[in-house]
Amino acid sequence: MLFTYVVCENEGEEPYVIITNCDSEEEKIEVPECFHGIPVKEIGKYAFHAKHMKKVQLPKTVDTVGSHAFYDCRQLEEITISDYLVEVGDGAFKNCRMLNVIEIYVFQERYTCLKNLLSEMNQQIICKLHRKKEEVELLFPSYLHNYQENTMARIINQETYGAGAHYREAITKDGIVYKEYDSRFYLATNVEKEEVLYGIALLRLCYPCELGKPYKEQYVTFLKEHWIPMIQWLLKTEQKEKIKWLGQYEDTSKEDMKVLLEQLQQAEEIELLSEMMQMNQQRFGQKKKSFAL
Q1: Secondary structure of the chain in the HEC alphabet?
Q2: pLDDT value at 222 more than 60
Q3: What is the pLDDT of residues 224-259, one digit of tens each?
Q4: Cystine design at 1: which of 24, 88, 119, 242 (Cβ 3.0–4.6 Å)?
Q5: Phi and psi angles of residue 277, each rounded to the nearest 5 degrees, phi first
Q6: Across the chain, what does the average pLDDT equal?
Q7: pLDDT, greater one: 242 or 293
Q8: How confident is the model at residue 157 (pLDDT cuts 50, 70, 90)?
């Protein structure tokens, strides 16, 4: 992997590296923390323009991503950063339409990087936060702004489609206001597809950071009301770990488990069905039921 870089040596400051180009066609690119002992602090303008990688990992030494640094990286799906990253230039991730996962290592509990990144992106994003005390995953839906011109009044009206813009308002530079995030679910149920709602609810229950009882109940109620189509969606999207989690979850009842097993039987998921039957036996102490496959 070949990186082109320059060393900045400003008077009164420690020298640091700016990455100016990457000459690699690998699917995963990991930017090193330093070159010859000099830390990498900045990804320069257009440094990764139109590259074909799917994943990028930036070290915690990087605090700046320049404008259009990843412009037109149309195959980029996931980026890994730290909360030491505080400055994201204009258009840094423009036309990265496949980008749907942001993974952040949180050292200082600063969320400027997340706020800046999500303001750049209107597509659906899953944020994975590695905090010192716990892991958190959140889904931010997509949104779209549409502008309608009122010629007679000589004004332009902005219309927003989707709940994503409202969910992004729950992020401040100092943190995520989880109560605000959870309060958006009622709005989301009116404008988002059911698959998006499944994702929001499941992640909040799987990673219940600051999840209040009323909001927990709203997510549990929603999933139980959509139990069968939700399980079918998980099977279709091959999210088997989420199915296993449902089998262990405290609010999954004996009747819920029975329906889950029936869905696994119909989908001919033999190995997973066997595992879930054992889980059913452990949780509810029932004699294993035989399924004809």
Answers
A1: CEEEEEEECCCCCCCEEEEEEEECCCCEEECCCEECCEEEEEECCCCCCCCCCCEEECCCCCCEECCCCCCCCCCCCEEEEECCCCEECCCCCCCCCCCCEEEEECCCCCCHHHHHHHHHCCCCEEEEEECCCCEEEEEECCCEEEEEEECCCCEEEEEEECCHHHHHCCEECCEECHHHHHHCHHHHHHHCCHHHHHHHHHHHHHCCCCCCHHHHHHHHHHHHHCHHHHHHHHHHCCCHHHHHHHHHCCCCCHHHHHHHHHHHHHCCCHHHHHHHHHHHHHHHCCCCCCCCC
A2: yes
A3: 999 999 999 999 999 999 999 999 999 999 999 999
A4: 24
A5: -65, -40
A6: 92
A7: 242
A8: low
Q: Do 102 and 113 form a contact (C-beta atoms < 8 A)?
A: no
Joined tokens for residue 74: 């149309």
Q: What pTM was estimated for this model as a whole?
A: 0.90
pLDDT bucket at 174, cuts 50 / 70 / 90: confident
Measured distance CA(169)–CA(164) in Å, rounded: 9
- Which residue in 200, 135, 211, 132 sits closest to 162, CA to CA? 200
